[in-house]
Fold this protein.
Amino acid sequence: MSADSKVSVKKRQKLGTAETRRLRLEGLVPGIIYGHQQDPQPVMLDEAIIHPIVTSGHKVVDLDVEGTLEKAIIRDVQMDPFSRLVHHIDFMRIDPNERVTVDVAIELKGTAPGVMTGGMLEHQLHSIKVDCLAYQIPDSIIVKVGELQLGGVIHVKELEIPAGVHVQTPGDSIVVHVVKVNTKEIEATLLGAAEPEVIGKKVDAEAEAAAPAKKK
């Protein structure tokens, strides 16, 4: 886990769709801070600053709210589907000494030998739910697939989890496996998709079927 990132935010006084649209046009992200029996505080922050923190998978941040420091975790992020910019962000206040429950991303490393022998790597689980102290939240869980042969599988219970981190996701859940690829079925599907339909023949056949039988 990396050191906590410091992020400066400003309080938002104006709310509503028009205001949030204006903020985004200026390169700002609307957000909110909540939790710890305090009133929710709408905020705004620089997209260029929060974007690399979000995409790195980092969870814990030190918020500078106009001079007041608050430790928080990134609880929810909305990304624009086209620009991939941060659209909205939720921060939850935390006590560094209390346990929190979060989703942690799974990151695959290496090349599975089974792929070289006709298999296909299927990454089924992209994150796991864990609980731990706030300062122990991992940025990601690394899964090494360098020894995964054809038919090989890695379950949640086989992951290397940092000390103090408790996994809530069921241990028998499949994270990644290498499955055999039926090349004949794939080739048949591709050939079927590539084969053009002869429109003229289809029309002629339909017309012939619809025409009344000729009298002898």
